[in-house]
Design goal:
- It is built from 11 helices and no strands.
- With 309 residues, the chain is mostly helical.
- The chain has a single domain, classed as Orthogonal Bundle (MetI-like fold).
- It is flat.
Length: 309
């Protein structure tokens, strides 16, 4: 009997390890098939590496002003040229990537955290749902940039206040996504069974409903990341974002608009960086959504089949 039990345990462990390895292979194949997702992920990883290790590679201080080199075109000494204060543009773009990506990452994390809490509790408690969702509707009715500008006018220009303002702007969008998923999960039979067994509301919300909202939450967070970078660039371009002289891609564009006809490089290069960051995140987010929710692709195939008939 002991020998049989031992053999059974060994067989089960081998089967489990085999299944896990096969699942990993299938997942890897699915990821590699989506070339746009892979390309977006690679570009974004390279941008993150630039933000982390790029300052070690540039030789100029981003705040160092050399008036004699003012508005110098790209050359061997200054690969991307200089700005209207004689500062090296490559150094400012590299250091600015930390500010822009840091704001986007912080906003994505904070808005996801608060949106998750609001969405879960509003889906479970009807009274809270009416209050929190009406507040969210009011915030979503205001264009994001205008709301962010109003909040920045009240808080004052600083990187921390940019993160706070944008987190307030994007939290309702996360809350809506989480709430819609949590409402459908709440009506499942096993949730009713947990209530009948006397499980606490906290346990039901965080151990049984919350795990089902993580996948759409992660996908939405990637889009919030890119939207936050665009909005931060817009705020800095308008002069109410990351304050000078600290560099960000947005306030480099702000400096470049004054000399756009004399120094094209001041708007082209930071603009390319913003485009690459946003495009890579959107490509990665679209691929991640298709990977997590296969109904998106299957829905397209079903429509195609009906059309063919």
């Amino acid at each position: 009997m002991q020998t049989l039990k031992t053999d059974t345990n060994v067989d089960l462990s081998e089967i489990k390890s085999t299944l896990k390895s096969e699942q990993r292979k299938i997942l890897t194949k699915k990821i590699m098939k989506n070339k746009l997702m892979v390309a977006g992920g690679i570009i974004f990883i390279l941008l993150c590496l630039l933000a982390l290790f790029g300052p070690m590679l540039v030789k100029y201080d981003p705040h160092e002003m050399t008036v004699s080199d003012r508005l110098t075109a790209p050359s061997g000494d200054h690969l991307l040229g200089t700005d209207n204060f004689g500062r090296d543009l490559l150094s400012r773009i590299v250091y600015g990537s930390r500010a822009t990506l840091g704001v986007g990452f912080s906003v994505a994390i904070l808005s996801s955290l608060f949106g998750l809490i609001i969405g879960l509790y509003s889906s479970y408690y009807k009274t809270l749902d009416h209050i929190l969702m009406r507040i969210s509707d009011g915030l979503m009715a205001i264009p994001g940039v205008l709301l962010a500008i109003a909040l920045m006018a009240a808080l004052g220009p600083s990187t921390r206040n940019v993160i706070i303002a944008l987190s307030i702007v994007f939290t309702p969008y996360i809350a809506r996504v989480v709430r819609s998923v949590a409402l459908s999960v709440r009506e499942q039979t096993y949730i009713e069974a947990m209530r009948a067994q006397g499980a606490s509301s906290f346990r039901i919300i965080w151990l049984h409903i919350m795990p089902n909202t993580i996948s759409p939450l992660i996908v939405q967070a990637t889009f919030i990341f890119s939207d936050a970078m665009i909005t931060e660039a817009a705020l800095s371009f308008l002069g109410v974002g990351v304050p000078a002289p600290d560099p960000s891609w947005g306030n480099i564009l702000y400096d470049g608009k004054l000399v756009i006809f004399n120094a094209w490089w001041m708007t082209v290069f930071p603009g390319i960086m913003i485009i690459l960051a946003v495009m890579s995140l959107n490509l990665f987010g679209d691929g991640l959504r298709d990977l997590i929710d296969p109904r998106v692709k299957s829905g397209k195939k079903i429509k195609g089949d009906k059309h063919a008939k």
